[in-house]
Amino acid sequence: MKALALCGSARVNGNTERLLQRCLDILQGEGILGEMVRLAEKRIDNCTACGGCRKEPYGSCTIDGDDFEPIFRVMCAADIIIVGSPVYFGSATPQIMALLDRAGYVARAESLFARKLGGPVVVARRAGQNFTYAQLMYWYMINGMIVPGSTYWNIGFGAEPGDVESDEEAVATVDRFAENLAWLAHKIEG
């Protein structure tokens, strides 16, 4: 099993990345290798609705010149995909949505994400976390993915890098989510 954490934050080592890293650490402790892709270090162009992904075998995006294709291939190879985003004006970051929109369209041509495991992780300074969590959750559902629960929604609060680590409920919730991912992954493996 392989896990992938996609961090949609513009901040490297910010609150979103810290919660995602907790997930990866717990999964690694359960024997599931993982990696983090930080979109802060990448360029992802928006979907242009050209329809080219419907014409290529096994799904392929016709937009060239950005970092989408290598990230998409890692997404396809992963068994677990965790998507993290801070809240920007009440919703997920534009960069994570550009990636998910394109990946979703390309993957749906062949149901490439169906039955993969995962779930969203969201960090807000003050508000917007529920909408952002639901926004990301829609992506999992339309792609036929499996999302385990936790003790609450996978949300945390923090403004400055590291603040979220003081949100004890967020840390406990994300930890339980990662434990449930590992449990489910092992059940599926048999």
Structure description:
With 190 residues, this protein is an alpha/beta fold. It has a single domain (2-189), classed as Rossmann fold (3-Layer(aba) Sandwich), CATH 3.40.50. Helix content is 40%, strand content 16%. It contains five helices and five strands; from the N terminus they run βαβαβαβαβα. It has helices at residues 15-29, 68-77, 94-108, 129-142, 168-189; strands at residues 2-7, 33-38, 80-86, 117-124, 155-157. A five-stranded parallel beta sheet has the order 2-1-3-4-5, sandwiched between helices. Strand 4 (117-124), helix 4 (129-142) and strand 5 form a beta-alpha-beta unit. Helix 1 (15-29) packs parallel to helix 5. The radius of gyration is 16 Å and the shape is globular. The model has no long low-confidence stretch (mean pLDDT 96).
Keyphrases for this structure?
190 residues, alpha/beta, Rossmann fold
Topology, element by element:
Elements (H helix, E strand, L loop, with lengths): L1 E6 L7 H15 L3 E6 L29 H10 L2 E7 L7 H15 L8 E8 L4 H14 L12 E3 L10 H22 L1
Parallel strand pairs: 1-2, 1-3, 3-4, 4-5
Summarize the structure.
This protein is an alpha/beta fold. It has five helices and five strands; from the N terminus they run βαβαβαβαβα.
How many E strands?
A: 5
Q: Helix proportion of residues, in percent?
A: 40-55%
Dominant shape: globular
Average pLDDT reading: 96
CATH class: Alpha Beta
List low-confidence stretches: none
- Largest sheet strand order: 2-1-3-4-5
Q: State the end-to-end distance.
A: 12 Å
What is the count of distinct domains?
1
**CATH topology call:** Rossmann fold
